[in-house]
Design a protein that fits this description.
The complex is a heterotetramer, with two copies of chain A (256 residues) and two copies of chain B (321 residues). By secondary structure, chain A is an alpha/beta fold. Chain A has one domain (4-248): 3-Layer(aba) Sandwich (Glutaconate Coenzyme A-transferase). Chain A contains seven helices and 15 strands. In chain B, a hairpin with a 6-residue loop joins strand 6 (160-163) and strand 7 (170-175). In chain B, helix 6 crosses helix 8 (204-210) and helix 10 (264-276) packs antiparallel against helix 11. The chains are: A alpha/beta (256), B alpha/beta (321). Chains A and B meet through helix 3, strand 9 and helix 4 of A and helix 5, helix 6 and strand 7 of B.
């Protein structure tokens, strides 16, 4: 039996995110946990997983211990099947070649909208965040998995600013805005795994992580959560998952 | 915006027709190349994040005390800190602006943008690419299917939502971006400016075609014979290029594909210095590393032989398989 | 036109989502590959004029007696004669259709088009390219500045003239072209379909991305290791590709860059045979060279070792400098 | 002295067309006489002439005796500065990188419109010609030089079909159609060199070739010609021009 204290919050986050991927998929991965989780999936259950990076990479095969500091660095191209322009790799999303978009998030709301642009009023922001990068394109055009830290200030009823659209204001508002495809599929945190209900498109808890209670998740969330009728408990990280993860990121660059 | 968002076609053509497009040598020094950039110009930057950043040219522009530049780049890293912090640029057009994912937010960017001293226009990454592409193609816009429904779009009235005349679908038209000058660093080119780019190209080819002038910095200048032996490796044609500058390690402390990886000790030291004090820290950095050295080579000496060689070993290793 | 000019986005995405995009080997025979092309389909052809024409695949489709294909290509040469004359295609979308500048008009094209048996939709060369590009990018159109004012445009109500919402200028929007299947010949690819193309690329990259399926024929199949050692040489990614067929001399009697130039004796003989009698002459040619041989290799034997070797010597000479 | 009988009609056509080019220009050349004339100019007066071909070639340097059978063949790329996609090379016209477009013509009218699509009614044509190729793009977006055989059936008042636009119906009709740049600059035939007058944009004779009379040009032209007030007589081909031309095309592939 693996005990919860045997892994960090970022490690379970990475392992559970990796489990959302299926062999044979094409996944567009952001830097940090997504890059690491996609690589973990590729090195464990999904040898035929094709990883795309925003810098212009198809079919990356990142080397253990040599994680790239961004998705635009040469390390991302190691043993890739193809290197192409940044616009070209983003256009693959628009054409429809990408099964899953996989990103981190700074702030998310009940409809899965992500904010990485402004904390506070965008005209006079408390904090100017880095901005969308490819996030807006990925979330506009693909089915999304988001991996993020679970904190009350990050899980809010309405984001201050919709940088990367989820289901906007719920219902069919996403399609009405001109985004007929894609949308939030899963949100993974160190506490739980979330999906989105069909009608209103609000976030719901699909599974609790080992040792986490409903109350704990709700307490750390800034809006009222829906819990799935068939609420599951996730399998804890296996020895193999943790060992592979630690081999990939021995310096805990993304799993501190 | 006061100026027109998109240059009228006749202006675009007229500006291009004034350039000398003949096959001629155009090798100049880093200092001389700065004369192609005038105060108030729109400047497109090649590379992305910490990769193939035209750092030597930015360094030279800061030393030449340029003013009021508007800079555009796919993704902005510490190059943006230096541009804003040195005061030569007060307007950034990009999709992402931080020092790098490893270091969190850029306190330098935050200081200048939150205080209102500088403007940061945010577009999606693909939108930046499609703006350069429209510029490269000589058309006023590109249609895209992202940014719709987001608050990023609400801040960009320069873009236009339309109903597609073919399908009735909602589309976004993003306006062409034709910078006055582009700064691009490449692994090699000839004296005319025919450039080869290894590995990641980012948006550099569209940028080169979109800009009204191009300054190429290059790790090395090779013969035109070498270029002509493999013309399908040429990525930027000579007639787009107005100046060629040979600057080995011209992206330092960032990386140049296949040549060197980022010089991370220098980067770490930079980040802790400027994020601790985004004004004074940056000033001190500029004094020591930008205004201080007599030449780019002297700047590299300040980075140190150890770190330069280690970055080179790591950079070349991409070809070790 | 009865069908919509441009596929709605949801249909485009739905069709793509049904394809198996996993990393898997997909090597098949020329005969098996014909099953990806069904009667009535829209077929995009790679290469241009006499260069990198997917001739072996066309040859196999004629032998498989396909019907009512609509074919599109940047510029059409004797491949078009064979497609119309064999009866497998009755609709051509291109910018130029003749056997080659050396031989004047194609009597075969004239016979079929002037008699009304086949349709030839003419677009400008750039318009064909931009139609594939729009298809590749997943947008319904590209804006262009040519074709305006010409009678070529008057014949193409599928294109739409607009006043630019940014500049007020007249522009033409050309509709996306997303062929059901593309036939592309390359110098080399791996068993997954990662393809390298040497020299002239024509419109093949956009075509591969635009099409709903791609059949690659290739001079040789190389290891995936070889592809991964120089990923910036990959021009078509594996997940666009549905079938890989190794067919040395797969463009004969046309050329394949760096491998062989056109086999001009065969071409000359072909032209004089079919232009003398565009029906009977073509039938005789098909009987002898398409239906007759047991295999593509036997077709090459009919061209003759002398001519194949001479074309190879000339083809390779591009690298002699 | 070189006598007229010392060169063929295609040779003087090629030589005189070549003379329209200037060193340092970027010229987009069609196959046949244009390709040959541009190469002749490059090998004589204009070593810095940059020749583009529709197949996707910048800065070609065609080898003597190895003329390409089309502008899409590998021979066009010999010692070129760059090889790129066909759409990309055409887009250079649209962006404005091309000084001169240089084409042959099957049929031309008084406004410099070219027809290479249909003889007769386009719905029920007498002859279906090959079509535009890049001709429409080149003539829509660049200043044009056209080299063609001078025959009455080729020089007509109105072309049956405007494939590649000249000045359309004259005056400012070209700009009004959405083509504010480019237009016909020179037409060169074995009989004369033509320019276009400023107001109506009709073809006018700028120079007669050696030994050719006004009447002969008019007789072989299907519309009334304007003659320039300063009508010149072209210099006959020089020994050097003819020798270079014959070295380039020893088999008279394009100069028969």
């Amino acid at each position: 039996m693996i005990e919860p204290h045997r892994y960090t919050a970022n490690e379970i986050l990475t392992v559970l995110s990796a489990r959302q991927l299926r062999d044979g998929q094409v996944v567009f991965a952001g830097v940090g946990v997504p890059l690491l989780a996609a690589t973990l999936a590729q090195r464990t259950r999904c040898p035929g997983l094709t990883i795309l990076f925003e810098g212009g990479v198809i079919g990356a095969f990142v080397e253990p211990g040599k994680l790239p500091p961004s998705t635009n660095d040469q390390r991302c191209t190691k043993r890739a099947n193809m290197v192409l322009g940044s616009a070209e790799v983003l256009l693959l999303l628009q054409r429809g070649y990408v099964d899953v978009g996989f990103m981190g998030g700074a702030q998310i709301d009940q409809y899965g909208n992500l904010n990485s642009s402004f904390i506070g009023d965008s005209l006079h922001p408390k904090t100017r965040l880095p901005g969308t990068g490819g996030g807006n394109d990925i979330s506009s055009l693909a089915n999304m998995i988001v991996a993020m830290k679970h904190e009350k200030r990050r899980f809010v009823e309405h984001v201050d600013f919709i940088t990367s659209p989820g289901f906007i204001s719920g219902g069919d508002s996403r399609a009405q805005s001109g985004l007929p495809t894609g949308g939030m599929f899963r949100v993974v945190t160190e506490l739980a795994v979330f999906s989105f209900e069909d009608a209103e498109r609000r976030m719901k808890v699909a599974a609790l992580n080992p040792g986490v209670s409903r109350d704990e998740v709700q307490d750390k969330t800034g809006f009222e959560l829906i819990f799935d009728d068939d609420l599951a408990v996730t399998e804890p990280p296996s020895e193999n998952e943790l060992a592979t993860l630690r081999m990939l990121d021995p310096e805990h660059l993304f799993t501190a | 915006m006061n100026e027109a968002v998109v240059k009228p076609y006749l202006q675009l053509r007229e500006e291009l027709s004034r350039r000398d497009r003949s096959l001629r040598e155009k090798v100049v020094t880093l200092e001389d190349a700065t004369s192609f950039v005038q105060d108030g110009m729109s400047v497109g930057l090649g590379g992305s994040t910490m990769s193939r950043t035209p750092m030597a040219m930015i360094w030279a522009l800061i030393r030449a005390r340029k003013k009021h530049l508007t800079c555009s780049r796919s993704i902005v890293s510490t190059d943006g800190d230096l541009l804003l912090g040195s005061g030569i640029c007060d307007h950034m057009i990009t999709s992402w602006f931080a020092q790098g994912i490893l270091w969190g937010l850029s306190k330098v960017m935050r200081h200048h943008v939150e205080k209102g001293g500088a403007r940061y226009d945010e577009w999606s990454h693909m939108a930046v690419g499609m703006r350069f592409r429209a510029g490269a193609m000589g058309v006023p816009f590109m249609p895209i299917r992202s940014m719709l429904g987001s608050d990023v779009l609400k801040q960009r009235p320069e873009a236009k939502e339309i109903d597609c005349p073919f399908t009735g679908e909602k589309l976004l038209l993003v306006p062409a971006l034709n910078p006055d000058v582009a700064l691009i660093h490449v692994q090699r080119c000839d004296a005319y400016g025919n450039a080869q780019i290894d590995g990641l190209q980012f948006m550099d080819i569209d940028l080169a075609m979109a800009a009204n002038r191009v300054i190429l910095t290059t790790e090395r200048i090779v013969s035109n014979d070498q270029i002509r032996r493999a013309p399908d490796l040429t990525k930027i044609p000579f007639f787009c290029v107005d100046a060629v500058v040979e600057v080995p390690y011209g992206c330092a402390p960032h990386e140049c594909y296949g040549a060197y990886e980022p010089m991370m000790q220098h980067m770490e030291a930079y980040v802790s210095q400027v994020n601790g004090d985004p004004v004074g820290g940056l000033e001190a950095y500029l004094g020591r590393y930008v205004y201080g050295p007599k030449s780019w080579t002297e700047f590299l000496e300040l980075i140190g032989m150890d770190e330069v060689l280690d970055a080179t070993r790591r950079g070349r290793s991409i070809y070790d398989d």
